[in-house]
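in:
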């Protein structure tokens, strides 16, 4: 039905707007993205010199007139050069401007400089002209820019006093500047016919998917102009189609918010969903979702009611009191996001021959362990309650003596085994909490300081939680590293948007349900990234503290960096590729260690954004990016035409689309990495200690000739219940997760070809290893429960 509706809408546009068949080229990538534009093949990125003339063309690029998008040929799943859609011809406005064809050429673009006291500086007038100030050849220079082409997707901007052709996303031009230009041009092109001019503007906004703008333009003309009856009917007919498209867009937005756990917002919005001129199919979908919410709310009410009733019937006073706080916790916190946990309890409610104590025990263990590991045994339920409290106390104590005492208490509990504790970790709230002192007086906005073990200094980071944050639900997270000349607040606002008058953020991170943190990784007055342990620790400590304090999906953590912060992100990302689902880099350069770690990028998806005129930065990175392309890495490079060093807000929607498709594989079956820095010593489930002196290159020693990097290789053979590791450090540790090996069967762990673990009976899951691992890494989804430490010199396991 939905496709049929869209087909008839398309036919209507062909009739009303004179639509035509358009031919284009789409490329589908292996992660599901579709990239459109004019395609081509290259041997290298950024003009890097190929190894030989016979090198294959491994780089595919697509040019959509706004930017060029590059990716490895191996990522292409399908190329469609057939007719891609039945649609109206793209609405294009071409402005007649006096453009310089003989003046000096702009080859490098810096940041625009505001002019104090001139509120119109840098703003386009109704004729599409503006003056900007930029630093050229060490002096501030005024440049007159003119819009020459406007399309729904991109706008071409040229100059009258310099040769400069740049492109921006049309959506990035403020509406108060864009609309007067469109009205002027539409009237000119329609020779003063107001209705025809309005239709051109409406077509433009429809193709931009700015349906509310289209509706406002129609309303403005209907309410302020004296139109004939036929003209009014024509615009009213267009308005009905616009409303249907707008309602479908609103519905899709609410579906996105619903998927990301913003149920209160979605439910309230759907209750007042517009009905005037809206397609019946859309309204039916809204009704079905509201009915689903009502049904789930009824289920929640029934679970709480029956759980409380069954608790009242428990005769064992001691067990009844032990279970009471959890029954109250479920009553307070059971909601649309946590309802799935209680599936086993719902299935058992009508079962006969089950005591009230068993029913409550099942409900409590559903809540603590999840439905899959729930049990009706009361002794296990009460023990699990105590074990969760012990886990929380273990995480919150700063005393090693206190932790040892808590480990002793675990031994008395039936629920104190790796399977149960792993399930508790996966379903409990973060052990650490934020305080009122850390709250920055805005919704979900905090500043947190973490003690550091280095130089007796602390590490500070800001965090913004998404709307309707629920600590019982997991959220993806972005670790965003600012440029040296920017502030934490500005970097945060790029991802989350600025605060509205209501004290909420309306940016993309909130829409997509992301937590964002911005660590202070540099010191005051720092001029470049220094590749130091201090900078690494600032990022990693912030990450681990956030994972212990907030409900983070550890398999969907992304590292992002801008300018010098991008230099930092590139280095930290390749030094610890196992921590990230992906890495997003803006206008930065691969230097020092990044050039020596190409293997470390094999399993790390990278999204790189830059401007064509940003001091040849793509050319500077050409050799390393081409290496990634030839290695068939998951790499996307975006180069904006005619642009310099900017924030590139134009790209944010495509970045979030990319992130939605990425998830870390924490247990890869095989990997190989390199390191020449002793702090870069852990990768997925292996760790090294005792680097050979010949392998160590400190930042201050760079470049050091003759250094031979430490190598780590690992293979996980699941079928043979075997781990095979090679490492060139003195100590090699192999960490094992609960689901990596079958501890009931014969286990083989080989290090450098030597058997470290064969049929040893004492190699079993260990809750002490599990707890200290969570304390160290903060990863509740992928805990380790055993470790093998092998000395490569004595060739013995310790």
């Amino acid at each position: 039905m939905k496709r049929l509706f869209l087909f008839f809408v398309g036919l209507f546009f062909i009739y009303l707007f004179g639509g035509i068949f358009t031919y284009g080229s789409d490329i589908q990538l292996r992660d599901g993205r579709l990239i459109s534009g004019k395609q081509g093949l290259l041997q290298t990125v950024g003009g890097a010199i190929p190894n030989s003339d016979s090198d294959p063309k491994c780089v595919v690029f697509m040019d959509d007139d706004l930017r060029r998008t590059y990716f490895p040929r191996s990522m292409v799943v399908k190329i469609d050069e057939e007719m891609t859609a039945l649609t109206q011809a793209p609405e294009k406005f071409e402005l007649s401007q006096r453009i310089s064809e003989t003046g000096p050429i702009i080859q490098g673009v810096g940041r625009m400089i505001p002019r104090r006291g001139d509120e119109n500086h840098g703003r386009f007038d109704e004729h599409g002209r503006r003056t900007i100030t930029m630093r050229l050849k060490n002096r501030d220079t005024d440049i007159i820019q003119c819009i020459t082409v406007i399309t729904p997707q991109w706008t071409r901007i040229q100059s009258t006093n310099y040769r400069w052709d740049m492109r921006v996303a049309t959506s990035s031009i403020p509406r108060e500047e864009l609309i007067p230009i469109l009205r002027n041009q539409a009237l000119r092109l329609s020779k003063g016919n107001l209705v025809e001019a309005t239709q051109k503007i409406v077509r433009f906004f429809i193709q931009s998917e700015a349906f509310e703008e289209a509706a406002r333009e129609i309303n403005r003309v209907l309410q302020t102009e004296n139109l004939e009856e036929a003209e009014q009917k024509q615009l009213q007919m267009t308005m009905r189609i616009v409303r249907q498209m707008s309602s479908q867009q609103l519905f899709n937005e609410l579906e996105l918010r619903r998927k990301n756990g913003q149920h209160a917002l979605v439910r309230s919005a759907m209750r007042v969903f517009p009905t005037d001129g809206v397609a019946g199919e859309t309204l039916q979908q809204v009704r079905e979702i509201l009915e689903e919410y009502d049904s789930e709310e009824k289920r929640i009410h029934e679970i709480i009611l029956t759980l409380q009733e069954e608790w009242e019937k428990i005769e064992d006073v001691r067990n009844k009191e032990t279970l009471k706080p959890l029954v109250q916790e479920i009553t307070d916190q059971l909601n649309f996001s946590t309802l799935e946990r209680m599936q086993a309890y719902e299935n058992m409610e009508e079962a006969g021959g089950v005591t009230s104590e068993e029913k409550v025990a099942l409900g409590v263990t559903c809540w603590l362990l999840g439905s899959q590991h729930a049990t009706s045994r009361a002794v296990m339920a009460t023990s699990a309650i105590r074990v969760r409290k012990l886990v929380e106390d273990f995480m919150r104590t700063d005393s090693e003596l206190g932790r040892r005492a808590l480990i002793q208490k675990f031994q008395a509990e039936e629920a104190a085994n790796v399977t149960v504790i792993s399930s508790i970790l996966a379903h409990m709230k973060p052990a650490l909490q934020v305080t009122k002192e850390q709250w920055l007086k805005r919704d979900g906005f905090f500043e947190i300081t973490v003690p550091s073990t280095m130089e007796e200094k602390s590490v500070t980071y800001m965090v913004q939680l998404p709307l309707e944050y629920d600590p019982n639900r997991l959220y993806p997270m972005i670790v965003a590293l600012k440029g040296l000349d920017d502030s934490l607040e500005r970097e945060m606002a790029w991802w989350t948007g600025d605060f509205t008058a209501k004290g909420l953020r309306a940016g993309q991170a909130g829409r997509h349900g992301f937590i964002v943190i911005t660590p202070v990784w540099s010191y005051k007055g720092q001029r470049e990234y220094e590749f130091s342990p201090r900078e690494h620790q600032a990022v990693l400590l912030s990450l681990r503290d956030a994972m212990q304090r907030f409900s983070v999906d550890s398999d969907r953590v992304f590292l992002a960096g801008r300018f010098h912060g991008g230099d930092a992100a590139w280095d930290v990302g390749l030094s610890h590729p196992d921590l990230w689902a992906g890495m997003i880099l803006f206008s930065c350069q691969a230097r020092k260690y990044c050039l020596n770690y190409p293997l470390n990028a094999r399993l790390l998806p990278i999204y790189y954004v830059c401007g064509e005129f940003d001091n040849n930065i793509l050319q500077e990175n050409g050799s390393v990016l081409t290496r990634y392309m030839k290695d068939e890495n998951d790499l996307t490079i975006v180069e904006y035409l005619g642009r310099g060093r900017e924030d590139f807000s134009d790209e944010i929607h495509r970045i979030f689309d990319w992130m939605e498709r990425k998830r870390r594989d924490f247990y890869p079956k095989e990997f190989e990495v390199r390191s020449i820095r002793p702090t870069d010593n852990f990768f997925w489930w292996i760790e090294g200690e005792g680097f050979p002196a010949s392998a160590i290159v400190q930042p201050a020693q760079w470049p050091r000739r003759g250094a031979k990097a430490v190598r780590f290789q690992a293979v996980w053979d699941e079928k043979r219940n075997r781990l095979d590791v090679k490492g060139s450090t003195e100590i090699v540790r192999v960490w094992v997760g609960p689901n990596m090996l079958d501890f009931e069967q014969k286990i083989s762990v080989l290090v450098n070809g030597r058997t470290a673990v064969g049929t040893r009976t004492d190699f079993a899951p260990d809750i002490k290893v599990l707890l200290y691992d969570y304390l160290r890494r903060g990863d509740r989804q992928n805990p380790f429960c055993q470790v093998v430490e092998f000395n490569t010199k004595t060739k013995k396991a310790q």
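note: The longest helix spans residues 280-313.
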